[in-house]
Amino acid sequence: MNVSPPILRFLGAAGTVTGSKFLLTAGGRRVLVDCGLFQGLKQLRLMNWNPLPVDVHGIDAVALTHAHLDHSGYIPALVRDGFRGKVISTHGTHSLCRILLPDSGHLQEEEADYANAKGYSKHSPALPLYTEKDAWNSLDRFSPADFDTRVDLGPLSVQFVHAGHILGASLVSIELDSPRRRRILFTGDLGRPTHPILRAPAPPPAADVIVIESTYGDRIHDDAASLLRFEHAISKTLARGGVVIIPSFAVDRTEVILHHLARLRESGRVPSTPTFVDSPMALAALKLYEESIASGSPEIRADIAHAKGFFNSQDLTEVKTVQESIRLNSMSGPMIIISASGMASGGRVLHHLKRRLPDRRNTVILVGFQAAGTRGRSLLDGAPMVKMLGDYVPVAAEIVDVSGFSSHADQREILNWLKLATVRPQIVYIVHGEPPASEALRARITHELGWNAVVPRNLEQVRIS
Ligand SMILES: [Zn+2]
């Protein structure tokens, strides 16, 4: 019997918001909780190329909190490099990974091709981090599980609990029975009680150690003000014949935006306007949300379960092909274009921004977290010019921040959620935040709850006694 105490090692999302990877070694097993890509600043993205500081063959399983790429996007590389265990996730996370991971591989290949064509790579030839084929291969390793059911991994067991962040998102609770009973809870990304589509996060399962996210650890969302800003930005722009561009995360943000638009139109607060969702990925995810609502999935809020036409498709045009997307460039306003990626770090939204940013009639609405180093953050910070697709583009359009549409709990919501814990944890590790956000949350947990809380360093390892 293995009697050494469990060890937790932070292999990403420590001191930053992306690259979530937490290695738990316990009872002779190694479980990697989340397997995400580093995103944002170039120095972070380059970290994706560093080999993992552990032997990939020695990892027994991956437990995935949710499908966002900063939590799942390194799985294809892990499998290509020799990981042969199971990737355990909820069914919803598996379905979304089937959409997101192949697309991520495709994008890596496109970027490598582009770098080769422009000759700017330091490798010759430039290589993708992984390919679309690697991504499809990695999907074979998935073994989806139900919520609230323990998955047995020998000396350990894993349970997924509703986190309310995006469809399929879960808290991951890991239990070890011997030599001592130990329970470790990973929040992944924690949702919000006010999410208009998803049920509020379940209360925290009893845990000795909690690893919690802190994306908005130093902020309080103002939902009412956000919605009002959203409404004003849209009605003002449409009234002056402008185009509203909403860079949107393909999963969940698109649904939340469409929901708010539909409700504002129903109440006559904004006029009916042609609305384009220009992202095949977002459209595929939208279908999953529609199915979940129609079937009354337990992840969906009770008041909208089984609702028909929830996203009000009357004004909505689905833009699937590249040709259709390019055609939007020649159309004039008023209209609304929702397109990925959410931080304008890539994707089709770039050519819309390039076309629409120089015109002061237009508006860009930023609806989610904008990581340092992304174009979204530059726009938010008031940059007069932004470089995209090889050119500097002047920013004359209005830029509006609606971060209250975020699907991450804010500081108050995180603290209120922690207060629901029935057991006082020995320690809370604060991850997945830029340093000021993590530190602010650490201080609140220490002062308000009186709990031990620490912001770990990247690659640090700690013993769970
Ligand atoms: Zn997420």
Write up this protein.
This protein is of the alpha/beta class and 465 residues long. It contains 13 helices and 22 strands. The protein has helices at residues 42-45, 69-72, 75-80, 91-118, 132-139, 223-239, 253-266, 280-294, 322-327, 349-356, 375-380, 411-418, 435-449; strands spanning 7-10, 22-26, 29-33, 61-63, 86-90, 142-145, 151-153, 156-162, 170-176, 182-186, 209-213, 243-247, 275-278, 316-319, 335-339, 363-366, 385-388, 391-394, 398-401, 427-431, 453-454, 461-463. The strands form 4 sheets. It has a 7-stranded mixed sheet with strand order 6-5-4-3-2-1-22. Helix 4 runs antiparallel to helix 5 and helix 4 (91-118) packs antiparallel against helix 8 (280-294). It starts with 6 loop residues before the first strand and ends with a strand. The mean pLDDT is 93. The structure holds zinc ion. Zinc ion is lined by residues 66, 68, 165, 189.
What's this entry about, in short?
By secondary structure, the chain is of the alpha/beta class. The chain has helices at residues 42-45, 69-72, 75-80, 91-118, 132-139, 223-239, 253-266, 280-294, 322-327, 349-356, 375-380, 411-418, 435-449, and strands at 7-10, 22-26, 29-33, 61-63, 86-90, 142-145, 151-153, 156-162, 170-176, 182-186, 209-213, 243-247, 275-278, 316-319, 335-339, 363-366, 385-388, 391-394, 398-401, 427-431, 453-454, 461-463. It starts with 6 loop residues before the first strand and ends with a strand.
